Amino acid sequence: MKESVLKRTKGRIVWASVLVVALLAFIWGNSAMPGQTSSQMSGWVGQLLRTLLPFLPLDTPEGMHVLRKLAHFSEFAALGFSFGWLFGMLCGGKAWFLLPVACGVAAACVDETIQVFSPGRHCSIVDVGIDSGGVVTGLLVLVLGHLLFRSNIRIFRRES
Question: Is the pTM of this model over 0.85?
Answer without folding.
Answer: no
